[in-house]
Amino acid sequence: MKNNGENCIVFFKEQGQSGNDYGLKDEDFVLIIMTDFQKEMITKYGKDKICIDGTHGLNSYDFNLYSVLVVDEHKNGIPVAFCFSNKSSEDVFRIYFSAIKNAVGIIETTTFMTDDAPAFYNAWSYVMGTVKNVLLCAWHVTRNWHQNLNKIRNPEKRKIFNKALKAVKEELCLETFSKLMKQFIQELLNDSDTCEFGKYFQ
What we know:
43% of the residues lie in helices and 20% in strands. By secondary structure, the protein is an alpha/beta fold. Helix 2 runs parallel beside helix 3 (118-128) and helix 5 (155-170) runs antiparallel to helix 6. Residues 50-144 form the MULE transposase domain.
């Protein structure tokens, strides 16, 4: 990384160092990076939307990378902070978001998008305050649905309901979506082969 006098490390706790002040164990590692450019971008675009992405097992140390992103006026995602840690917990995410808050102040965003782990939003709301719209990443939602479709043991019915599920997911009209969703759930619950998935989906 080019050294222009900028200190982009906003938090660092190495392994072997006491982490009692932060609720961390001695063996925990946390490195949070935020450049001046990233600070500008979160201040400029963070009011609209904040997205969180986690990547696990990046190297032989089994560290995780957590990225906070904003979306610019061209719908491009811009990473505005990085957190490397061997731990995946609400405590680490509170430290992460507190480091961002210490760097740029409170970010009052309208929309918060994350995967299906509640720890991200719980930590964000604890540090920055509640958010009007909390969205789940479509990729994670689809992955979870497909993992649970195996609750439908009949392969033909699984195929039919997977196709119906896709149609419901892609419906843009709110009124039509609501009708399709209600009908979809009712059909799942009324069939003994699909009611287990219906209970999960509901």
